Amino acid sequence: MDLAIDAPALHAVRCFGEGNALYEEYHDHEWGVPVHDEHALLERVALEGFQSGLAWITVLRKRPAFRTAFDDFDAEVVAEYGDDDVERLMSDASIVRNRAKIEATIANARALRALHAAGGSLDQVMWSFAPARAEHVRPATWADVPATTAESKALAKELKGLGFRFIGPTTAYAAMQACGIVDDHLATCPVVTGHW
């Protein structure tokens, strides 16, 4: 029996987050898992925007505080935020205090509310840009994972046209990964292989 065949299963590591319980939980149970709930989609778009320029673990650690500060990303509530709320959020050390990102999140809630009023949904918009599953090639290394795709560029353009802000092609692609619209777990990842 060739033990080398079983070696990868014995030494399987996550494609990211190994050794950090919060990161491991996110990797194992959220990243790449399909999301369709409107609050959760707005949250993912907002948090990917807040992550821009920072390590994702920084935002992940602050996610409970973000949920509290932004009323669980309820678009109907956040869309009503005014200048006092912006100042409240700017003084909240438990979240990322960036005025442009805070104002974009409020604008995005307003855009989502308008989308709902027009009979649409963020779920429908985002998932309409899902690449064909038959064309998906699971990445072997992180070098194979793109920062943007044609679909993420198109999604960013569509969202901007709907009034969303702070959503370029890279942020759109990160949101697509976070929402399971694309699944970029590496081919050797235990999520894919089942070898824990």
Task: Give a brief rundown of this model.
The chain has 196 residues and is mainly α. It is built from eleven helices and no strands. 53% of the residues lie in helices and 0% in strands.
Features of this protein?
196 residues, Endonuclease III, domain 1, disordered N terminus, globular, mainly alpha
Question: Which helices and strands, and how do they pair?
Answer:
Blueprint: H1 7-10, H2 21-29, H3 38-51, H4 56-69, H5 75-78, H6 83-90, H7 99-117, H8 122-127, H9 150-161, H10 169-178, H11 190-193
Written account of the structure:
- The protein has 196 residues and is mainly α.
- It has a single domain, classed as Hypothetical protein, domain 2 (Endonuclease III, domain 1), CATH 1.10.340.
- Helix content is 53%, strand content 0%.
Q: H/E order of the elements? A: HHHHHHHHHHH
Largest sheet: none
- The CATH superfamily label reads Hypothetical protein, domain 2
Overall, the morphology is globular
Domain count? 1
> How many distinct helices?
11
Instruction: Please state the structural category.
Output: mainly alpha
Instruction: Tell me the helix content.
Output: 40-55%
Per CATH, the architecture is Orthogonal Bundle
On the 0 to 100 scale, the average pLDDT is 93
Strand elements, count:
0
What's the CATH first level? Mainly Alpha
